[in-house]
Amino acid sequence: MLELIVISTLNGVLFGMLLFLLSSGLTVIFSMMGVLNFAHASFYMLGAFFGFQLTKWIGFWPALVLAPLLVGAIGMAVERYGLRNTHKHGHVAELLLTFGLAFAIEEIVSMIWGKSPVDYRVPSLLDFPAFTIFSTNYPAYKLFMLAVSVVIFIALLIVLKRTRVGLIVQAALTHPHMVGHLGHNVGRVFMVVFGVGSALAGLAGVIAGPALVTQSDMAAALGPILFVVIVFGGLGSLPGAFVASLVIGLVQTFAVALNGSLASAFGPLDPSAGPSVLTDVWNVTIAQVAPIVPYLLLVIILIVRPMGLMGTRES
Amino acid sequence: MRKLTLAIAVIAPMLGQPASAEDTIKIGYIDPLSGGGASVGEGGLKTFQYLADELNAKGGILGKKIEIIGLDNKTNPQESLVQAQKAIDAGVRYITQGNGSSVAAALSDFVTKNNTRNPGKEVLYFNYAAVDPSLTNEKCSYWHFRWDASSDIKMEALTNYMKDTPSIKKVYLINQDYSFGQSVRTDARKMLGAKRPDIQIVGDELHPLLKVTDFSPYIAKIKASGADSVVTGNWGQDFALLLKAAADAGLKVNWYTYYAGGAGGPTAVKQTGLDHQVFQITEGFANSGNKAAMDYEKAFRAKVNLSLWYPRAVNEMRMFKAAAEKANSIDPVKVAAALEDLKFEVLDGGQGIMRKDDHQFLQPIYISSFGKLTESEPFDEESTGWGWHLVSKIDTPQAMVSTTCKMARP
């Protein structure tokens, strides 16, 4: 039992940190510009595919640096030539733009790399078990993923809270006109922030690609859960996103580990009732519904605390 | 003069069109060509195209060329029906499909209704891989023919092997949460319980179909249960990722599988380092020892650059030809009648028969294990250097289960 708890905690934290890496970019963009970027998971997918392609050409480590930069550049272009022009038509237009972009990216990716999963492997340097607990190996690559996510989180916090750049970014968030009058180029700040957010998603793609599956529908599979993270954590709150990522990662992992059902808690239904919809519902285990648990959390938090765990604004 | 030539050049193909359409037999291949099942679906499409080319090179069926039309159903029943209707509208009278029993059930139902409503334009449904037993039991249809062994036939053979393996004490079941996965778990529980009541089922897991991206939490659970063997019907991405996670965690158990040989499976097994500890149950495999089948495998690999996952697809196409020639017609109604009780020498050797009662093809079944190859086994899988090794062959009479099918005959 202890074994299961320890391993599940590790797995949950890892998944949570990966979610954070993705949602941090989304949160920063959202708090800056008020745009819910539907194409964010697509930038993650682009990161994975660029990572795969660059790994084939120049190796994993250069790809780890170059692929996020490429994705960031695409993100900046999207902001400069897409979002900035639609901004004057309001948030709905911006939302629709990113929505369409997500589909376009998926189509382009499947045209270039095909619809089957690509063979994106863990670099041989990290392809060994890092340590063994209770006779279960923990792969070094997963530890590496964890380390990258933690480093990024700390770096983001420091930049936003402790540096001059962070000060301007935060000010531009609430008082864009004032910041503009002080001589800062608010447009460029927005563009860079969008680029950095996209690059973060790209980075998550590069490092998650070999561990999960790299294929053209990976964005669609991950997109919805990201919105759960940022709403659950509080719209626009970076620490909130961090906590929410961890909570959702852990909840989902532990839900798989639990075999409990209503039947095991309260005993089976009267057998004379015969098989019916009720007995089906009664016998469903938590493990079976694990994938939908995060969405249940989303619904509950929206009812109980609409601004999210650490959010400041009602929305 | 030039105008006339131009006119002929434009009109001639139009005139030629109907004639050539009648000269081809179109087979609609409806399987996932995108999403989580794509790797499996694309392999199947290439296999059927190879088989069609082979038949065409030998003059086709009754002088008619065969054309395979690939249609993407995204492993989705609803999408499959749209594709099936599209195919029928384009003149397809034969549909073949395999991946996903939920899709198969929907298609079988669709074809049956279509044939009732459109007499004279019947469509036959050749199922090469969907193994839910209900398709040839309570949901059986006259227009549906299955070449793969149903999952209860496979489980019957598998448990007959497991019951003679005393080292098996604790079994963990993990399957995809849909009709096929559920039938694997219920059959395994029932048959193991009857044949080896001392075996303990220490886990019985269902997970969402083609949705899980990381199986580590499931592997942690298997490990914690103390199981020595796992039985799984997982296929495609779900199998490869399951084994990948097992390899990462260093889980050392015996795996009894239906589809370890599918796309990505062998690579994942090799990563686990479980030499001859992953078993698969099939109607044939590369190193079966049958010379004709091994020669065929060699030619297939040379041209398609894939292993022959579906010896049953070879049986299907060859039996289609045999039935059409027996009926001397490519009319689906006559072909269906000719297929019933048709005896056939299968690719890997031994006689099979298309049972009239439920349209289930009965054939020899093999259990093989995956690991280092011996001298007489030339074929590895996915360039891993490992390949399949014969563990047990179950002949047709021992690989039968009864059917409850009450078929409505036209």
TrEMBL record, chain A:
It is found in: Cell membrane. One of its GO terms (molecular function) is transmembrane transporter activity. The chain crosses the membrane at residues 12-38, 58-78, 90-113, 140-160, 189-212, 218-235, 242-266, 286-304. GO terms for biological process: amino acid transport. Its main location: membrane. It comes from the Bacteria. It is a multi-pass membrane protein. Keywords: Amino-acid transport, Cell membrane, Membrane, Transmembrane, Transmembrane helix, Transport. GO terms for cellular component: plasma membrane. InterPro entries: ABC_transp_permease, BCAA_transport_permease. Belongs to the binding-protein-dependent transport system permease family. LivHM subfamily. PANTHER family: ABC TRANSPORTER ATP-BINDING PROTEIN, BRANCHED-CHAIN AMINO ACID TRANSPORT SYSTEM PERMEASE PROTEIN LIVH. This is Branched-chain amino acid ABC transporter permease.
TrEMBL record, chain B:
Coiled coil: none annotated. Residues 1-21 form the signal peptide. Gene3D superfamilies: 3.40.50.2300. Belongs to the leucine-binding protein family. This is Branched-chain amino acid ABC transporter substrate-binding protein. The lineage of its organism: Bacteria, Pseudomonadati, Pseudomonadota, Alphaproteobacteria, Hyphomicrobiales. Keywords: Amino-acid transport, Signal, Transport. It comes from the Bacteria. PANTHER family: LEUCINE-SPECIFIC-BINDING PROTEIN, PERIPLASMIC BINDING PROTEIN OF ABC TRANSPORTER FOR NATURAL AMINO ACIDS. It comes from Bradyrhizobium arachidis. Residues 24-368 form the Leucine-binding protein domain. The keyword Transcription does not apply. It holds the Pfam family Peripla_BP_6. One of its GO terms (biological process) is amino acid transport. The keyword Transport applies.
